[in-house]
From TrEMBL:
This is Substrate-specific component nikm of nickel ecf transporter. One of its GO terms (biological process) is transition metal ion transport. It is a multi-pass membrane protein. It is found in: Cell membrane. The keyword Phosphoprotein does not apply. InterPro entries: CbiM/NikMN. It comes from hydrocarbon metagenome. Gene3D superfamilies: 1.10.1760.20.
Length: 209
């Protein structure tokens, strides 16, 4: 339900979505190393599969998004994974659509980047369970931001979409909690068994190498 479908948004909003998505793809792919590709592919597959796990909420259903998980694992490469996963979802399952791919990628990819930046704030702090705490915050923030972006875009279409925008927010409240718990647990677990899976400081925004 966090995917906006074809035929809903005006042409100007669709064009803006593709423009911003193109800019973010260039940023996300800049200086990518070949050894990063397997990890990006693995997380992209997880994002793709997450959309198949649906939960009935009242008259509708919602699915896992996991953009927060992508953010804490891939850093700025997260936008690549989000874009590819959404493209595959649109082609194979008609989740959203190709004309609205730019907007959907922006709505899910930008929060993934925000989750990464929030997760990075743990560095330099001395406290137990930091990865789990910041992972949970990042996971919840990513879904919340995606939901708010979708709701704002629907509200911009006029009063006819007011109820739908509120339904989007209400229906995803359980998803925010679930993903916060899942991402927090995943961050804490990976720190113990495979810390190199977590996004490292080498993917800084201002990286120039």
């Amino acid at each position: 339900m966090v995917h906006i479908s074809d035929g809903v948004l005006p042409l100007a909003m669709l064009a803006a979505g593709f423009l911003f998505t193109l800019i973010l793809l260039v940023f996300s792919m800049r200086n990518i190393r070949i050894e990063e590709i397997p990890k990006v592919s693995l997380i992209t597959a997880a994002l793709f599969v997450a959309s198949l796990v649906h939960f009935p909420i009242g008259p509708t259903s919602v699915h896992l998004i996991m953009n927060g998980l992508a953010g804490i694992l891939l850093g700025r490469r997260a936008f690549i994974g989000v874009f590819v996963a959404l493209t595959l979802q649109a082609v194979f399952f008609q989740h959203g659509g190709l004309s609205v791919l730019g907007v959907n990628a922006f709505n899910i990819g930008v929060p993934a980047l925000l989750a990464w930046q929030l997760f990075e704030k743990r560095r330099g702090l001395e406290s137990p369970h930091l990865e789990a705490v910041f992972g949970a915050l990042a996971g919840g923030l990513a879904v919340l931001t995606s939901v708010l972006l979708v709701s704002l875009e629907l509200l911009a279409l006029g009063e006819a979409f007011n109820e739908i925008s509120l339904l989007v927010i209400g229906a995803h409240l359980p998803v925010i909690i679930i993903e916060a718990l899942v991402v927090g647990a995943a961050a804490g677990f990976l720190l113990k068994v495979k810390p190199e899976m977590l996004a490292d400081s080498s993917s800084k925004i201002m990286e120039v190498n």
